[in-house]
Design brief:
With 151 residues, the protein is mainly α. The chain is built from 5 helices and 4 strands. Strand 3 and strand 4 form a beta hairpin. Helix 4 runs antiparallel to helix 5.
């Protein structure tokens, strides 16, 4: 089951499946240090995500230790994708709030993701233009180098 947006009838999945979980469902209790090792995020970042509302409620052990589940690992994987898009943290938090509010927020979630997608496409176009300039300059210098070797 994916953590992102699951309803009894549907499951929303990313184009690529999240990485395999270290433990099967039902045995999937992870300490914060295990999540740090699995995600590459710092414990400080994980606590901050929880504090600002980017993380859903994290279970606690009887001693108060955070106990992450596979669904939390999936969510962190998705949040990592959103971070790589350049989505502002405030928008990521808003998205998380909408997920918690339920299915009636699908349209607003879709709009938020579509706006982010437009931003990503614009940045890709800028990078492609920059790459074309670099390719042109590299070709220029390669031609100049070849010409100097012939002289």
């Amino acid at each position: 089951m994916t953590v992102l947006e699951t309803t009894p009838a549907t499951t929303d999945i990313c184009v690529t499946a999240p990485p395999a979980h270290p433990r099967p469902e039902g045995q999937d209790y992870y300490t914060i240090s295990e999540v740090v090792a699995w995600t590459g995020l710092s414990a400080h970042t994980l606590r901050w995500y929880e504090r600002i509302g980017l993380m859903p409620h994290i279970d606690r052990s009887h001693t108060g230790q955070r106990r992450f589940r596979n669904r939390d690992l999936d969510w962190l994987n998705f949040v990592g994708k959103l971070r790589r898009t350049g989505m502002p943290v405030a928008d990521m938090v808003r998205y998380a709030e909408l997920v918690r509010e339920g299915d009636h927020t699908f349209e607003e979630r879709q709009e938020l993701l579509e706006a982010t997608r437009r931003d990503v496409h614009a940045r890709i176009a800028e990078l492609q233009d920059t790459l074309a300039v670099l390719d042109h300059k590299i070709g220029y210098y390669a031609d100049a180098h070849r010409a100097s070797e012939r002289a």
